[in-house]
């Protein structure tokens, strides 16, 4: 028997993709290879239900600045800061960054990945029956135009 | 191959990704859209000469109906009983309107036309109701309050998803038990093996209001994602939410 589980409060700006940082101090490894998955924390709505109170904060689409986990790598400590406009990432900056040519070069990749995932590629859109007039301005029309 | 045509007043987007068979897939797409236009002519409650209207006026009797319409009306009756009358295509003082079942049923059959013609990888999106094959495909669900945003993304390989809400056509779904528009939910999506099941279940559950979420979740093979009037999201554990990072 299936049960419906409450997931989260969908605030006015409570959108997918939901990217949230859980501010905490990383205690993890000293290898650079783990740095990427650690910094980019990607809870889906499922995860949000069990995580912090951040999801139930009544969010207007105001700015919110969140600091990521500080991660110790063999090249030094890495920590990013993300600014959300509503639930969209508007900017990513480095709070701590090792002064080392290799990691400096790696950093932009990390940021790019974060922003790419935010734009969450989709193949089609489900919604309430849309009229042909409303279709013109819909996400599905944009997807169709791209594929044509 | 991508095609968009407007049938029954809504856009129908077809994408077929199979390699080869180019012209044959074009013919299959022609047949698919011809079928949907035929459905519109036969089952529209807005066309006085449709079978639905003629039956409603008493010009046709039950035994004279086509096998297709008989099947549709049987489905309507099943959902009416299953929802305790919340879903009802015969509301007092209104013409017979089986659109909610006709849409899912006819688009599901259109998808079966594609499969029978050899298509394996496709997306058929009929005004927001979706049948996919040969995925994984990523299907966004429109945010109930922001047309340009999504409230979830699901991953679907083979199957269907339908969404009921008020944002496009206003309070058009009526709770047959009260005769009043259903306003207890902002949006409700159902994933099922067929669009016939997904679409009718989504509309019926929406008509029921908040209790419809549990009702739909209890139906075999249905996974549910719902946003209530307080913007709370409820979903079944098996609703196939896509992982964000690939």
What can you tell me about this protein's structure?
Chain A has a domain at 32-121. Chain A is elongated, with a radius of gyration of 18 Å. Helices cover 28% and strands 24% of the residues of chain A. Chain A has 148 residues and is α+β, with helices and mostly antiparallel strands. Chain B has six helices and twelve strands. Chain B has an eight-stranded antiparallel beta sheet with strand order 1-2-3-4-7-10-11-12. The mean pLDDT of chain B is 91. Strand 1 (4-9) of chain A pairs antiparallel with strand 12 (232-236) of chain B, so a sheet runs across the interface.
Name its key features.
heterodimer, A: 148 residues, alpha+beta, four-stranded antiparallel beta sheet, 28% helix, 24% strand, B: 246 residues, T-fold, eight-stranded antiparallel beta sheet, two-stranded antiparallel sheet, 6 helices
- Uncertain runs of chain A: 10-60, 102-119
Sheet having the most strands of chain B: 8 strands, antiparallel
CATH topology of chain B: T-fold
- Encode the helix/strand succession of chain B as letters: EEHHHHEEEEEEEEHHEE
In short:
The complex is a heterodimer of chains A (148) and B (246). Chain A is of the alpha+beta class and 148 residues long. Chain A has five helices and six strands, in the order βααββββαβαα.
Show the helix and strand layout:
The complex is a heterodimer of chains A (148) and B (246).
Chain A: E1 4-9, H1 35-39, H2 45-50, E2 63-67, E3 71-73, E4 76-85, E5 88-96, H3 101-118, E6 124-126, H4 132-135, H5 139-147
Antiparallel strand pairs in A: 2-4, 3-4, 4-5
Chain B: E1 2-7, E2 10-16, H1 22-43, H2 51-56, H3 67-82, H4 99-116, E3 122-126, E4 129-133, E5 137-142, E6 150-156, E7 159-165, E8 174-175, E9 180-181, E10 185-192, H5 195-208, H6 211-217, E11 223-228, E12 232-236
Antiparallel strand pairs in B: 1-2, 2-3, 3-4, 4-7, 5-6, 7-10, 8-9, 10-11, 11-12
Helix pairs in contact in B: 1-4, 4-5, 5-6
